[in-house]
Amino acid sequence: MRAPQEQIIHKAAWLYYVRGMRQEDIAEALGLSRATVINYLRRARDIGAVTIRVPAGLFRDDVLARRLEDRLGLEMVWVIPEGNGGSAADFSQAAGMVLLDLVRPDSLVGLAWGETVYGMVDALPMTEIPGLSVLQMCGNLGASFHYRPDYCTLEMARRLWAFGENLYAPLVLSSEPLAAALRAESTVRQQLERLRDCDLALFSVGSCGADSLVVRSGAVSADELAQLVRAGAVAQVNARMIGQDGAELDCAYNRRLVAMELDDLRRVPRRLCLVSGTHKVPALRAALAGGYVSHLVISGAVAAELARDLPEAHQAT
User: Fold this and answer.
1) What distance in Å separates the CA atoms of residue 42 and residue 49, rounded to the nearest whole number?
2) Cα separation of 132 and 16, whole Å?
3) Where along the chain do the CATH 3.40.50.1360 domains lie?
């Protein structure tokens, strides 16, 4: 039988990590001070009552990561191993660890959407970051997918005890005049302007293949996407179509969007992009060319694909 103090430690850990209660609420429920709760949570980790799992070999590819940083002009690159050293779940968990290292109290974090983004959000531990706000970077989809923009934003806010700000507008409107009118509405305009104050933006890149997420989610039809590809689209960043050089495509689809402007995204100080599948490498190259990425989390396979394009480092003699 556990000692009384050990039982309280386990109870505090259960309420915080499983039930998702705030530290001050736990203190009130257990008749403790907040400082005592903090000490108990630390003790719970020390005695193994709580295990925070970091993917094995997280920093195995440090040399490759540093080389990619130098050649691509990025501030930080994290390469997540695969095979016996990692899995899809490990990628999501590692990306979450990176996010927690980057986010700061009172930060404004812009969040995009998609399966990769939601996978990271879903792997985040319950962590309290004072004053944090999570802002939805684009309008919403009608389809009921767990990775749609509003779900991603609210779930990340829930896990980080943050204030979530949804953008209550459709992602794609039926006409350009309607989209322009909606973007000009006071509430929507203010929300889009507030995204300019973000100090961190989190997103993935979308491919333009027939099975692209924008097709599966109903944002565009397969025929519409095929037309956009013929017009030069190779990728999506925050749902906006871009060409191989990273420039936003001048097309009706982009003008029908309610989403953060790509020029505003470039101005965000830290722009964290997550890419795990090699089928997205052409899209990632376009996003890198456009200057939308400053921090990058990629799988080992994606890193190897990117490295093939890079010239060998000059050897001093």
Assistant:
1) 10
2) 18
3) 62-308
